[in-house]
Amino acid sequence: MADGSWNPNFDPIKSTRPWAADFAEGNSWQYLWLVPQDVPGLIKLMGGKKAFLNRLDEFFTGGYYWHGNETDQQAPFMFAMAGNPSGTDEWINKIISEEYGTGPGGLSGNEDAGQMSAWLVFSMMGFYPVCPGSNQYVITTPVFDEVKVFLPDGKFFLISSINRENKNKYIRVITKNGAVFKNWFITHEEITKGGKFTLQLSPKPAMK
Predict the structure, then answer these.
(1) Domain residues of the chain, as ranges?
(2) Which of 78, 74, 98 is nearest to 88 (CA)?
(3) CA 42 and chain centroid, separation
(4) Superfamily of domain 32-202
């Protein structure tokens, strides 16, 4: 409040749509995750990875996530950043299938300079820049059998999916140029150097 006191009637889920009384275009639950520049710091403030993942799970299962605005669009990728990549795979699959379509209502919110579409393109390809100032892209399950990014000098960056079916939404194993790859992210340099990433998919969560 203006006098430095806290709002005695504060409600973290109040007004989940634009122009809320306490927050613009979102609520406290949604703005909680708007720390893309320091996710490790946010995890620490919440009491560690277990507490962070429990709260993130409550956010999604409680129905507080709102894809129609950029405020919390990075949140599903934070499962992987806290040690549960399968959580990212599950919720990205659900958001793509429920929030996008080819009809007049194909976008669930304002395109805002292309962000809604950019989120979809990255997510369908299988990687997303949670923090644009970083060189890391969080990995998730692609929706295609193969994605090829053509690079200068005849090089390319290839993502292949094995056993890609609707029920197989979780990544079981990742290999990079034939060797097992254990990171939850790829770097910009790994993309621009070219190479082949292969994702073996499974119907059950497998990566913890």
Answers:
(1) 32-202
(2) 78
(3) 16
(4) GH92 mannosidase domain (3.30.2080.10)
Residue 4 neighbours by CB distance under 10 Å: 5
- Residues 56-80 as b/e (b if ≥16 CB within 10 A, e otherwise) read beebbeeebbbbbbbbbbbbbbbbb
Q: Report d(CA 112, CA 181) in Å as an integer.
A: 35
Q: What are 13-34's pLDDT values in tens digits?
A: 775 455 556 777 888 899 999 9
pTM, two decimal places? 0.91
The helix/strand/coil state of 132 is coil
Could you report the per-residue pLDDT of 118-129, keeping only the tens digit for each? 999 999 999 999
Contacts of 185 (CB under 8 A, 6+ apart): 80, 81, 127, 136, 137, 138, 139
> What CA–CA distances, in Å, run from 67 to 46, 99, 208?
23, 7, 25
> Cβ distance 83 to 138 under 8 Å?
no
